[in-house]
Amino acid sequence: MTDVPEHIAIIMDGNGRWAKSRFLNKAAGHRAGAQALRRLAVEAEKIGVKILTVYAFSTENWRRPKDEVDTLMDLIHDYIQQYIDDSKKNDMRIRMIGDLSRLSAELRRKIDDLLEMTKDKKGMSVVIALNYGGRDDIVRAARKLAADVKGGRKTLNEVDEKLFASYLDTADMPDPDLLIRTSGEMRISNFLLWQTAYTEIYYCDKLWPDFTIKDLEKAIGQYQQRNRRYGGRNE
Ligand code: IPE
Ligand code: IPE
Ligand code: MG
């Protein structure tokens, strides 16, 4: 495939409805969702995607019933373990965005292991947004920047968009070219607010566990028809 967007972000939505439609519990839906991601990441790398950023757990998802949150955290733990096991075979680099300080010490240790093991990999980066909120990202960046100004390490005059962006969790990544949301929902739900200023958005009715490489290729096909102007003119 040619002209593949370098950075694709996905709001993986619809696990709950997928489970419900099959008379299964939510855990089964989330498990199927995690499998869909594993499959898709391998295929996405093959077609030339360089960065795949996925929304796994939002800062608002803590509002769900405790048993669902616990199930999600357990699944994320298993998912990370699987990646650790797979990392000898594949070349993907795993990165995390979000406030990891709220996660259990055990999960954080696992995550640290995985980040360490894959940090020099040269393949596609899979960026997992965990306890991520776009507003929270911006607020944490503002705090770090304010502390640097207060401490004399930065001056107020230096503060511009480029400097501010370097304080975000996505500091050294390009902005997403394409944002996909599954399950027919048409909202950002506090995902990459700063970073999607000029991202092309694609909504798709499929529920996340049913989303395949064919659907991704369809989204990319649409993306290729778009005229990205960034506020200017392409005449
Ligand atoms: C997305 O699926 C996964 C997470 C938010 C963690 P949902 O659980 O939101 O699925 P629906 O929206 O209830 O169908
Ligand atoms: C967004 O989905 C978060 C993730 C996919 C992790 P939600 O299901 O939480 O979003 P809302 O509540 O429908 O906006
Ligand atoms: Mg949802």
Written description of the protein model:
This protein has one domain: Undecaprenyl pyrophosphate synthetase, CATH 3.40.1180.10. The protein contains seven helices and six strands; from the N terminus they run E-H-H-E-H-E-H-E-H-H-E-E-H. The protein has helices at 15-21, 26-47, 66-86, 105-118, 134-150, 161-165, 213-225, and strands spanning 7-11, 51-58, 93-97, 125-132, 178-181, 200-203. The model has no long low-confidence stretch (mean pLDDT 97). It has 235 residues and is an alpha/beta fold. It has a six-stranded parallel β-sheet, sandwiched between helices.
Compact overview of the structure:
This protein has 235 residues and is an alpha/beta fold. The chain is built from seven helices and six strands. Helix 3 runs parallel beside helix 4.
Task: Name the features.
235 residues; alpha/beta; Undecaprenyl pyrophosphate synthetase; 6 strands; binds 3-methylbut-3-enyl trihydrogen diphosphate; binds magnesium ion
